[in-house]
Amino acid sequence: MSGQQDLLVVKDLRVWHPIRKFLTVAGYVRAVDGVSLSVKQGEIVAIVGESGCGKTTLARAIMGLIPAYSGSIFFEGVDITKLPKPTIRRWYSAQVGLVQQDPYGAMPPFMTIKKIIEEPMIIHKVPKEERERRVRQLLEETGLTPPEDFLHKYPHMLSGGQLQRVAIARALALKPKLIVADEPVSMLDASVRIEVLMMFRGLQEKYKTSVLYITHDFATAKYFSDRIFVMYAGQIVEAGPSRDLINKPKHPYTEALINVLPDPDPGNRFTVKKILPGEPPNLIRPPPGCRLHPRCPYAMEKCRREELPLIELSDGRQVRCWLYA
Ligand code: SF4
Fold it and tell me: Is residue 71 within 8 Å of 10, Cβ to Cβ?
């Protein structure tokens, strides 16, 4: 993967939501605050963090759905934050597919499965014959066989797992270079989660698509992704190859999240797990210095005063913590 070229490069991105009082801006919610990351061609990158950490806002900004306050998002070298909206809709929407968390909410209930998968191809003027062939192929590739059993059904007639397969088929319809998958299996039963991710991974390899996998779940991120970026309070706090990062977390926040994962060894199920005290900070006025310091068991005096960037370590990992500076 290291020889592959970068497809997506996010540089010092800020997505701040204005808080309006009467006609003035009274402050900002700093949902994404200085994020830099990259996704290589054919790579699966996971953004992992608790709800409210800014990961979905980051995904929406990368999709071109919400504006950046500052910073850049380069896709194949083009800064999409500078593109006019019609160009984002026309050109960029064909390059990037989306799989959302709630398949029922994401699909129009009055459209058949055929129409739902076909719609992006209609928008981008793919000829009818090619569309019909492609819909059948995608149903087969996502395990919805025989296609005749699904083409004319409506979303409410399918299970959550089947519907998420439809969402993946639709996201792949235009053979995009990148798929943004926002918690794609978190609403599914545990028994079908791995099945759907295995199918997704198989298709990602076949189409050589890059994936930005947004999740709160380290267990699926370890299995599904090549690299992980851990997000806390609008910032990346740690990044590295998935297995290394989960087997040997460096940042105290990553360590705490991994500590509360269920232990596969039944003998260790009842050991006391370290859970961070307190709550994530208010993103209107985040704490000075390191944003984790009010909750961090290792906090030192300078953690309360001085903010630091992501530090590049000799083993290729990155961490935002004074313990490694
Ligand atoms: Fe904890 Fe300080 Fe590291 Fe922040 S910088 S994670 S407060 S030790």
Answer: yes
